[in-house]
Amino acid sequence: MEKLLKTCKRSLAFTALLIVALAAIQTNVSAQDDKTILGAGSSFINPLFSKMFADYNAKTGIQVNYQSIGSGGGILQLTNKTVDFGASDGPLNEEQAAKFGVPVLHITQASGAVVITYNLPGDNNNLNLTPDIIADIFLGKIKAWNDPRITSINKGVAIPGLPILVAHRSDGSGTTNIFTNYLSKVSAEWKTKVGSGGAVNWPSGLGGKGNEGVAGLVKQTPGAIGYVELIYALQNKMDYAKVQNKKGKFILPSIASVTAAGNVKLPDDSKIFITDTDAPDGYPIAGFTWALIYKEQNYNGRSQDKATKLLKLLWWNIHEGQAFAEPLNYAPLSKEALKVAEKILKSATYNGKTIL
Amino acid sequence: MSKVKSSTGQIRAESIFRRSLTGIGIAMVVLVFGLMVTLIIESVPSIKHLGIKYLWGRTWDPVNNVYGAFPFLLGTLLTSFLALIISIPFSFAIAVYLGEYNPKGWLSNFLKNTVELIAAVPSVIYGFWGLLVLVPLVRSMEMKFGILPYGIGIFTASLILAIMIIPYAASLGREMIRLVPSPLKEAAYSLGATRYEVIKNVVLPYTKSGLFAGILLSLGRALGETMAVTMVIGNTSMIPDSIFAPGNTMASVIANEFTEADHTIYLSALIELGLVLFVVTVIINMIGKRIIKRFTNE
Question: What is the pTM of this model?
Fold first, then answer.
């Protein structure tokens, strides 16, 4: 018995040693060299970032290693200080900000939009939809396509009398966050009944995983309606609707109308959803993607050199880097957004002193 | 002298070998308990916030921090058992055919390898296939029956699961049937029993604990399957009102929502869902072990 106990003890010690060794390897990985900048977060912005960072690497020799793990994951990694910057499709919520404990800067990188896509037999691309029709469809209150509210603003368009099937995202996502934020702004009933977030308690419909899941549901089911990222809809040539904005105009989602949506007076910290924009030519279901960095860059023994490199990279992103946005179907920053982003970047400090 | 040295060396090698075996064994136990402890600790915020009514709550609302696991618990059990019911005739038929009727030869080998291949195909591929082939089929069937033609839902998910779990019960069943001692079978034949009677009265009773273990293995696989189910089940948190209605399972909710769960209680509620799944699996396994034991004692 005693012998057995002894064996157990030794084996346990061995296991513990193994775990410690593994942990040591793990910490070694995070201590990267000076030529590498680490980022993680939003998968939405990943194609744009890949292109930007490849070009930046060719020009400056600085390697940016960006992991597209989703906004939530990026925020978590920045909280744990394992990356130099995070990227998120939504601003930090109160709990996330509280976990940081120190100020975090939000620097707008580009904007994207959510489009309403549908599957209706016949020639009816770019239907007109108003905010309250969209809200009532997703609340499950408008049940058929030939509802007088829909047909009355789409005169002369062939709309079959199919039942409406709502398709939404089943996974938590920035896309859902922007879309439900928009619905909460335009519909009081949506705001009280459902609210906004990356995942919500959907009052009706089916869930698909990712843009491709929702698109799959919509493509397969005549009468289905769903929402996907503008980029996804453009790449896959899907039908999408014009949406009436605050000024009463029906706006087709496009790169220009999404950039226009962000061309409004922004708050100094740029932490705002630009859904239901005041801009007269702006598409109302749009949102920014932000890069997130610590305001005070001297943490975790970082060198000033590294902080400067990071800020220079982000500065390049919002200036020269914007040229890559449009070819990849991202909406570049508006003048207003750029002005605010510059100001925010300049407010970053090292030991209390500004860097740029 | 050198002989003594080599024998002490041998003894040392023996004891090192024994020690490492014990160590690895202990590591497994530590792992399982560590897993459970982690799940429990991480669930604490959710348990504190929601209490026991988490288990039968019917609302899953991340915005207002109200979480109820019941629709997903129901979805998991419904899809798994439905899949099991669909798969059993196929897996038993394969087991009997390969174990008794055609145990040797190229056809038998080919069939055996094909069935095993079913288990080797990654589940996301089943998901794709389900979405592109099975869903339209089920939809047209639903249209004929006059049910709401979603195409996706509990039934479709169960069909996919059934296909995925067939090899587990089939392979184990085949091995068991081949282990039936031939004197037993020969005795039955010599008494004038037909082949069917031999299978019914000798082979199946002799192998029933093994067959049941195979079923249990299948069930375990079905309970935890995530990717393929997520793609075809419809992912709604409403309680399904028929087997053709869309629903959701615990594993699929976790996979869908974990990465973007942006506040503590939300994350914790998802982990608690994992804990519930863990406990359900343990309970079903324990009941299964009991039944197997009763079978073997007879």
Answer: 0.86
